[in-house]
Amino acid sequence: MTEQEKWLIEEAKRKAETANKYQDKAFYLALAQFATEQAHRAALMRSEIDGRTWDHSAW
What CA–CA distance (Å, rounded) separates 48 from 21? Predict the structure, then answer.
């Protein structure tokens, strides 16, 4: 997970804790969950690209 992804997730969670309205809290919690899932998918794609690069049989 990159520093930007970590920052976004933590910031969204912090905003959710301080939100006064239910809608705002729900939005920030959903944003944190979405960002976490996207970070996981991005990590999987980076790993796949790295694996394909080193696979000499596919060159």
Answer: 41
> In the chain, what is the straight-line distance between the N-terminal and C-terminal CA atoms, in Å?
29
For the chain, how many helices (H) and strands (E)? 2, 0
pLDDT (average), residues 3-14: 96
Please say whether the beta carbons of 12 and 35 come within 8 A.
yes
Q: Which residues of 5-25 are buried (b: 16+ CB within 10 A; e: fewer)?
A: beebbeebbebbeeeeeeeee
Residue 9 confidence (pLDDT) = 96
Joined together, the tokens standing for residue 56 give 């000499």
Task: State pTM to two decimals.
Answer: 0.76
